[in-house]
Amino acid sequence: MIRIPFNRPYATGKEIDYIRAAITTPKLSGDGSFTARCHQLLEQSLGIPKALLTTSCTHALEMAALLLNIGPGDEVIVPAFTFPSAANAFMLHGAKPVFVDIRADTLNIDESQIEQRITARTKAIFLVHYAGVGCEMDTIMTIARRRGTAVVEDNAHGLYGKYRGQYLGTLGQLATLSFHETKNLSCGEGGALLINDAQFNQRAEILREKGTDRSRFFRGEIDKYTWVDIGSSYLPSDVLAAFLRAQLEHRDQIQAMRRQIWETYARELDSWAEANGVRLPIVPAECEQSYHMFYVIMPSLESRQALISHLAGFGILAVFHYLPLHLSPMGLRFGGRHGDCPVTEDLADRLLRFPFFTGMTSSEQTQVIDAVRAFHC
Length: 377
Ligand SMILES: Cc1ncc(COP(=O)(O)O)c(C=O)c1O
Known about the structure:
With 377 residues, this protein is α/β, with parallel strands linked by helices. It has helices spanning 15-24, 33-46, 57-67, 84-91, 137-147, 201-208, 214-218, 238-249, 251-268, 270-276, 301-313, 329-333, 342-350, 362-373; strands spanning 50-54, 75-79, 96-100, 122-128, 150-154, 162-163, 166-167, 174-178, 191-195, 287-288, 295-297, 351-353.
């Protein structure tokens, strides 16, 4: 029986008040007053011109692919170690993924391998700030500018993390957030598109509203709305935005709680890691992480699996993470082969994530730490 889950959703207490308020307003669909407040909180706290809530990070990634007009024959650079949504977003439009291996230290896309994979067909780089530790953005943005490709930051893990003092999600032309229940801030299922290049503002609103100019109509800028482009329904109900508003307002407290849990793991497991050949996460000096997860790199696949079983014996759920995309059934269809991305293949087998969630009690964390320390490779 699992006593300490991998994740437990956290509520600040204010969510229920805001949801009650949302259901007493005359507007429960998308883009009501709670959505507007979430947009404002994101824009002000990140210092960006435009944020749009979406129903998921997956949908925000799909919007990014639409905004960049990615289509058949195009190629998109994507790390081999990420969630399938980053690849699905452009593959839905017939584009081809070009998988790039990751760095052994941060598990982010290896910037030194990007340029050699860019061709005349490359439309964009969809990168991920793994565990909320920034990719090497200076190098990546320089390559992207030189080669004329867009950069989309999948920042599902990294809200309020920074790279060289700048918030993750504010560096590429477009960026995405996730508010899934496993993320630092959540509304169960949800996401956002961050727009750092104003040329996308108007079309993003249209794509999100079923291809119509309904957003302009609601703002009173036009007297009727109509079908003007392709699109879909990417906006969440204001009930979800009410939940999210409470989380965004408490972002500093939530981040501080997560930071404390992360630092306790790092401090208390340091000697155990060293004695057992286990690697703790690496955060380069130029990065301020978002405290999204705590993972370790075990010496082997066998020791990783053995530690999962050992912890399960104490009622503790520890989990691995992404399987290499290029070796998945979909990746194989695009020509993926063993050995294409050796760092991804190696680390995906050895990575293990410990229970990590806002509101984890110190007693729960002590039980995890004690159980981990009782394991020897
Ligand atoms: C890097 C990354 N991007 C995107 C997603 C998908 O997020 P969502 O569930 O909000 O669509 C995930 C899911 O965990 C993820 O890890």
